[in-house]
Design goal:
Blueprint (H helix, E strand, L loop, with lengths): L1 H14 L1 H4 L23 E2 L1 H11 L1 H20 L6 E7 L7 E10 L4 H67 L5 H34 L10 E2 L5 E2 L5 H8 L3 H22 L5 E10 L4 E9 L9 H66 L5 H36 L9 E2 L4
Helix pairs in contact: 3-5, 4-5, 5-6, 5-8, 5-10, 7-9, 8-9, 9-10
Length: about 425
C-alpha cells in the first residue's frame, strides 16, 4: 500500500505551485517604489516638448498603463483549469482490520466556462486599453490648454509692463509741465495715481503668469516649473474643421469606443453566468487498501451536482439587465458626445470670428489713437485724461484679443479631446498681421 500511496502523494505535492516555489514577499506596509524621471528644459519650452513631457510622466497615464498591465494577469488567470484535490480516509483504528483510501479528485468544467472567462477578461483588457487612449487624449487637451494659457499670460504680463513704462513716461512729462508752469499740479497727481494702478495690474499679471506656469508643469508631475518661457505664437490658430467630418470621426472617439466595449464586456459576462448554469463534474481516481483481505482496489468515480435549487438564475438575470443598461448607456453617450462636439465647434467658430474682428477692425484703430494721443501729450497737445482714456481703450482691446485667442485654443483642444485624435495640435491660421 505504501508503494501505491507514495507516488500518488508526491505527484499531488509537486503539482501544487506553493510547494514548487515559495515567492519572497515584501514586508507589510512597504509599497514598491515608482520613479518617473524626465528631463524638463530650463530654457524656452515648445508645445511639442510639453506634450512629450506630459505623455511620458503624467501620473494619470501611468495609472492607466498599470491597469492595462493588470488585465494581462487577469487573462492569464482566466485560462487556468481548476486545481485537483487529494482526499484520504481511514476506517477502523485497528491495523488488522483497517481500510485506507486515497483518491485524487479533478473538477472538469463544462458548458464553455473557461472560454467564457477568457472572453470576459479580454473585453476588460480592451476597455483598459481604450481608457489609456482616452486618458492620453485628455492629457493632450489639458497640456494644449495650459500651454496657451501660459502664452496668453506672458502677453498680458508684457502688456502690463508696457503700461507701467507708459505711466512712468506720463508722470515724468507731467512733472516737467508742472515745473514749466503749463499745467496744474493736479495733472501730476493724476499721473502718479494712474502709475500706481498699472503697477498693481503688473503684479496681478505676474501672479497669473506664475499660476499658469505651475498648472502647465503639473501636467507632467512637476511642482516647480523650470522652463524659462513658452515659445510659440499665440496668433497661429487652428482652422475651423467641417462639423460633418468631425461627426464621422466621432464614431472612433475613445468615449464611444469604451461604451461599445462595455456592451461587449457585459455580454461576455452574461455568457459567463449562463455557462455557470451547467454543473461541473468531478472525476475521482484513487486506491483502497483493505488490510483484512490483504488486497488493493482501484477507485474510479464521478460526482455531478444536482441543480435543483441554485441554477444561477439570479446572477444571470442581473447580467442580462446590466447588458441592457450598457446598451442604454451607449445610446446616451452617443447623444452626449454629439452635443459636446457641436458645442465645442460653435465655441471655436465664435472665438475665431471674435479674434479676426478684433484683429482687423478694433485693434488697429485703438492702437493708432493710443500712439497719437501719447505723442500729443508729450508735445503738450493733449491732457493726461485723454492719454488715460486712449490707453485704457487700447489695452482693453488687446486683453480682449488675447482672451479670444486663448478661447480659440481651448475650444480646439476640447475638440481634440472629444474626437480623440490630435488634428488641432498644429496651428495653421495666422490671425495677426506680421
Amino acid at each position: 500500500m505504501q508503494k501505491l500511496l507514495f507516488p500518488l502523494g508526491l505527484a499531488v505535492v509537486l503539482h501544487i505551485p506553493a510547494f514548487a516555489q515559495i515567492p519572497q514577499s515584501k514586508p507589510a506596509g512597504q509599497a514598491p517604489a515608482v520613479s518617473i524621471s524626465f528631463d524638463e528644459p530650463t530654457g524656452p519650452l515648445t508645445l511639442s516638448a510639453a506634450l512629450g513631457l506630459a505623455l511620458r510622466a503624467n501620473a494619470d497615464l501611468t495609472i492607466a498603463r498599470r491597469e492595462v498591465e493588470a488585465t494581462a494577469g487577469a487573462i492569464r488567470q482566466a485560462g487556468i483549469i481548476p486545481n485537483p484535490s487529494i482526499a484520504a480516509s481511514i476506517e477502523d483504528t485497528r491495523q488488522a482490520t483497517r481500510t485506507t483510501t486515497v483518491q485524487l479528485n479533478q473538477p472538469i468544467e463544462l458548458g464553455g466556462k473557461r472560454l467564457a472567462r477568457l472572453s470576459l477578461a479580454e473585453r476588460s483588457r480592451d476597455i483598459a486599453a481604450i481608457d489609456l487612449i482616452g486618458k492620453e487624449s485628455e492629457v493632450r487637451s489639458n497640456v494644449i490648454t495650459a500651454y496657451y494659457e501660459v502664452l496668453s499670460a506672458q502677453e498680458r504680463h508684457r502688456l502690463a509692463q508696457a503700461s507701467v513704462d507708459l505711466a512712468k513716461r506720463a508722470t515724468s512729462a507731467a512733472s516737467r509741465r508742472v515745473l514749466a508752469g503749463k499745467v496744474s499740479p493736479v495733472e501730476e497727481n493724476r499721473a502718479r495715481v494712474a502709475q500706481s494702478g498699472v503697477q498693481i495690474e503688473l503684479a496681478q499679471a505676474a501672479s497669473e503668469l506664475n499660476a499658469t506656469r505651475r498648472r502647465l508643469a503639473a501636467t507632467w508631475g512637476s511642482s516647480t516649473p523650470r522652463f524659462e518661457r513658452v515659445d510659440e505664437r499665440i496668433d497661429l490658430l487652428p482652422p475651423l474643421p467641417d462639423l460633418t467630418e468631425l461627426a464621422k470621426r466621432l464614431q472612433s472617439a475613445p468615449t464611444l469606443m469604451r461604451a461599445r466595449s462595455e456592451v461587449d464586456r457585459r455580454q461576455a459576462m452574461t455568457q459567463v453566468e449562463r455557462a455557470r448554469q451547467i454543473p461541473d463534474i468531478t472525476v475521482s481516481l484513487g486506491a483502497k487498501r483493505e488490510e483484512q483481505l490483504g488486497r488493493n482496489q482501484v477507485i474510479v468515480g464521478v460526482s455531478v451536482p444536482l441543480p435543483l435549487f441554485d441554477r444561477n438564475q439570479g446572477n444571470l438575470q442581473e447580467a442580462l439587465s446590466r447588458a441592457d443598461k450598457a446598451r442604454d448607456e451607449l445610446a446616451a453617450t452617443q447623444v452626449r458626445a454629439t452635443s459636446e462636439l457641436g458645442q465645442a465647434h460653435a465655441r471655436l467658430n465664435a472665438a475665431l470670428q471674435e479674434a479676426q474682428l478684433l484683429q482687423r477692425e478694433i485693434l488697429p484703430g485703438a492702437e493708432s489713437v493710443y500712439e497719437a494721443t501719447t505723442k500729443g501729450f508729450e508735445l503738450g497737445k493733449f491732457n493726461f485724461l485723454d492719454v488715460l482714456d486712449a490707453q485704457r481703450t487700447y489695452f482693453q482691446a488687446k486683453s480682449q484679443y488675447l482672451r479670444a485667442l486663448t478661447e480659440t485654443h481651448r475650444a480646439a483642444a476640447e475638440l481634440d479631446r472629444i474626437v480623440g485624435t490630435p488634428w488641432a495640435t498644429a496651428p495653421q491660421i495666422r490671425s495677426h498681421q506680421e
